[in-house]
Amino acid sequence: MKTSALAGRRQKALRKNGSAPGDSRRRARAQFLAPFAPLLAQIEATRRDDLYPFFSTDRESALHGRPVVLVANDYLGLSADPRVRDAAREAIARFGTSRCASPLAGGQTTLHQALATSLAEFLHQEAATLFPSGYQANVGVISALVSKDDLILTDLFNHASIVDGARLSGAQVRHFQHNSATHLERILSQEASGRRVLVIVEGVYSADGDMGDLPAVCAVAHARGALVMVDEAHSLGVLGDSGAGAAEHFDLLNDVDLIVGTMSKSLASVGGFVAADQNLVDAIAHSARALIFSAALPPASAAAALAALEIVQCEPGRRDRLWRNTRTFLAQLAAAGLDTMRSVTPVVPILVGDASRTIELAARLRAHGVHVCPAIPPMVPAHLSRVRAHVTAAHETAELDTAVETIVAVGGPLGIGRAQRTAALRA
Ligand code: PMP
């Protein structure tokens, strides 16, 4: 429906109901909005100053010609691959745009089954099941597997979807210091006895771009009878000889108990999955509320992920290019005096140190055709505010050179780079 027609209907409804919301309803709405006052003020200020940083990239392309896009997690550059696009198109032609049903109510097609089987084989697991998103996979798996008498030990830097799944499960949740198997061991020795314990880590951490210490975590957790779940969102397609992730990189595919992942990054689609022993997968697939009470992944998304998964396995050169780009980009940023925190992967944070300069940097970079993602509270603590860039195999060397030059040129006057580092050293 046209916007003007909608506006007309609203006007009519307003006339019919007498007026705009009355005082008491306005007061009630204001009460609900009160906690958002600082956020809304910030949004308004950035819009007013033309610094609003959350634009879609196609809008920007129209404005600036060809931008350097560093916001997509399309690590192997497969979202533009004709084979992946054709697969999605054919799936729509064959199965329609959506099955309009949850998985247990007939929402899955033979394509979904083929994708689940391929994922399980790729990850050396007995079985896998699909979720509509990676977020739902974490929430669904965790809340299905553990409950109030259990204990979840979760890395302090784990993704919001893990945090939310842990909360929803009703289990006791304890955080261990980021990547510290020593701290994990201490909590396990003090609190684990007699309980079921699920330890949750990530293969590559999405905030800092460092790798999870899977060998130490598995050793400590398994010695105390805990299960280990690893979220391979940013490591699938990126780490390991065949791209199977951090568990493959560390030769632990047979040791981790549950592998969760998303299709929205290296697999150039959307959707989530869990891969594990058949019984674990069956239990989750028939009880995870985030799966059974939500419509199944659209067939086009399953087909795109399946096509991408085949390419991941037969074109290792893409991973080589990704890592060449990553090493060059990290080295150039470091040489320019920028702080890339702990990153050793294609997830590259650039520390700014406060939220408002982070927003300003992201907006000014965008104006110069370089797209990075601002990470500010509540995503990270204010003093660790940063912009984040995602390197992919599809980036040209010249594009990454341009990005570094622009970040240095735009960041300098904002005190980001050498000046910031010198100040930090003096402090
Ligand atoms: N886990 C991690 C570590 C992530 O970074 C993300 C998304 N950024 C997710 C899960 C959720 O994935 P999705 O986008 O498919 O919901």
SSE topology sketch:
Blueprint: H1 3-16, H2 23-33, H3 37-48, H4 57-64, E1 68-69, H5 82-95, H6 110-122, E2 127-131, H7 134-145, E3 151-155, H8 160-169, E4 172-176, H9 181-191, E5 197-202, H10 214-223, E6 227-231, H11 246-249, E7 258-262, E8 272-276, H12 278-285, H13 289-292, H14 299-314, H15 317-335, E9 347-351, H16 355-367, E10 370-371, E11 373-375, E12 386-390, H17 397-411, H18 418-426
Parallel strand pairs: 1-10, 3-4, 3-5, 5-6, 6-7
Antiparallel strand pairs: 2-8, 7-8, 9-12, 11-12
The structure holds 4'-deoxy-4'-aminopyridoxal-5'-phosphate.
4'-deoxy-4'-aminopyridoxal-5'-phosphate (PMP) is lined by residues 133-135, 138, 159, 161, 202, 206, 231, 233-234, 262, 264, 272.
Features:
427 residues, alpha/beta, Aspartate Aminotransferase, domain 1, Aspartate Aminotransferase, domain 2, 3-stranded antiparallel beta sheet, globular, binds 4'-deoxy-4'-aminopyridoxal-5'-phosphate
CATH level-3 fold name of the largest domain: Aspartate Aminotransferase, domain 2
- Number of separate structural domains: 2
**Rg measurement, Å:** 23 Å
Oligomeric organization of the protein chains: single chain
Question: Mind telling me which CATH architecture of the largest domain this is?
Answer: 3-Layer(aba) Sandwich
Order of helices and strands: HHHHEHHEHEHEHEHEHEEHHHHEHEEEHH
Sketch the major β-sheet.
7 strands, mixed
User: What's the total number of strands?
Assistant: 12
Put simply, the count of helices is: 18
Average pLDDT for all residues: 92
Bound molecules: 4'-deoxy-4'-aminopyridoxal-5'-phosphate
Helix content: 40-55%
Class computed from helices, strands and strand pairing:
alpha/beta
Strand content: 5-15%
The CATH class of the largest domain turns out to be Alpha Beta
C-alpha end-to-end distance: 58 Å
